[in-house]
Design a protein that fits this description.
Length: 111
Amino acid sequence: MMNRNEFHCRCCGACCRIKDGIVRVSDAEISRIAAYLGMNEGEFIANETELAPDRKGLVLKSRADGACVYLDDNNLCRLNPVKPDKCRSFPFEWTNPDSNAICPELASAGV
Ligand code: SF4
Ligand code: SF4
């Protein structure tokens, strides 16, 4: 895994556009994101999440092209202060073959 001090994100947003990538959200994450967006939890769950492919929990919705709905036009995360742990911990606590293939900074580091 990458050291936080050595990794310099290029803010390209590619990791938020991984086709078939999913971002699971826990109950605590749903609470904090809904509060940040000024929505109640039921409204957030109904409108902003969908059932995970394995039917075990919820994931953030994706656009038709696979990008996360919270990625803005400048490749920034609209949930940045409260973004899910899966996003916050990448690529320091996890990567996978899909992410290694698309992240230019991981590629340049030979990951
Ligand atoms: S929540 Fe933010 S960081 Fe996570 S995939 Fe969506 S846009 Fe990217
Ligand atoms: S793909 Fe890599 S360089 Fe691009 S935003 Fe994600 S972590 Fe940063």
